[in-house]
Amino acid sequence: MVEESGVVMQTDNENKKLEEARNIIIDALGRVYALYGLPDVIGRIYGVLFLADRPLGLEDIAQMLGVSKSTVSINIRILEGVGNVRKIWVKGESPGSL
């Protein structure tokens, strides 16, 4: 980490390591959901949302996971149904961020 005028900045190497750890966690959650007979994408969606620092829309999630928006939509409804995620509205954004 580099400190500039009281602000801690992360180096590219640290950012790369954090991204790798994030991907490992997301993939692991996908495998956990698959162990219970659910599509692994549900676990991966949950992982993306759990680790996000802001609400995400369907398009954001689809892009991050490399899946279609309809795949995200279908599986989000399952997560909503069991109470794992909920919709919120963010001012200035399209309705339906999670």
Automatic annotation (TrEMBL):
Signal peptide: none annotated. Residues 48-85 form the HTH arsR-type domain. InterPro entries: HTH-GbsR_regulator, HTH_ArsR_DNA-bd_dom, WH-like_DNA-bd_sf, WH_DNA-bd_sf. The keyword Chloroplast does not apply. Pfam families: HTH_5. It comes from the Bacteria. GO terms for molecular function: DNA binding; DNA-binding transcription factor activity. Keywords: DNA-binding, Transcription, Transcription regulation. This is Transcriptional regulators-like protein.
